[in-house]
Amino acid sequence: MNESVGEKVAEVLSQQVISNISEAGAGVRPALSWDDPYQINADLHCHSTVSDGTLSPEELAARAAAAGVQVWSLTDHDEVGGLARAKAAAHAHGILFIPGVEISVTWAGKTLHIVGLNVKYENSVLEKSLEQVRSGRLERAKEMSRQLEKVGIDGVYEGALKYVGNPNLISRTHFARCLVERKICSDIRDVFARYLTPGKPGYVPHDWASLRESVEWILASDGIPVIAHPGRYDINELQMDELITQFKNLGGIGIEVVTGSHTIDQYTRYARRALVAGLKASRGSDFHGPEESRVNLGELPRLPDGCVPIWDNWAQLQPN
Ligand SMILES: [Zn+2]
Ligand SMILES: [Zn+2]
Question: Alpha helices of 3-121 — where are they, by DSSP H?
């Protein structure tokens, strides 16, 4: 696609954000109709205090309802402990709830995220496997704190714990909030840039699940595997081809096209990749909290034309 066509698509998409919202009206949630899946306001990626979000599952459900979300998924990092609460709250607001998860994966030396949608979460393969994954986080956190002490920043582990809703899920984001509070950095992005990414003093490499494990756990729990925010990974085009091929061969189904992590240009790029690879397209804000996220729940453009929405056959779905 040449640049001017790309710009044109981007312009049309950016208009669709606005028209989508104004059609629904602020706080007005139209009845869920499956006649045109493109018009369904599906937000299939966000985080609660059960991982590194700042709102509880109940607060998120209320916020999703207020924003006009019709199909909603909570996808906490490596944790399914908030799903029962989110489901109850979503039902109280009349929203179709899709239980989800976002699994951290090490692939080609990088950390990637694989989302599982409509997963069985109680007594599932997934629940048991994630318990093991989480145990590595605590050790990593303590080592990060030791590394930061070496550059003169003391007690960050204890400081980060204040922000942790679930002690099994201490993450870099919690460390970042502590450094912002202490005014060592101006905001979360600044912390990651200066301290918590490869080559920086507080970065501790960690082996997460493999791509194969993540996809297999999701499939074994009757879920739908989706590559999260592909535009965020520091990998080249050839590696992206390889990732998508491996993911599909393992049984992967979808890829996020419209996400709070993508630029408008990336919506077009990953819509095309989804089409070429025969993957369904997903849509999700990756909302973490009102103070930290640019994109609110549900307030995203619709999927670009030609994509197959991952929810296109969910009228018959038996929610897990
Ligand atoms: Zn992610
Ligand atoms: Zn996320």
Answer: 3-24, 57-66, 83-92
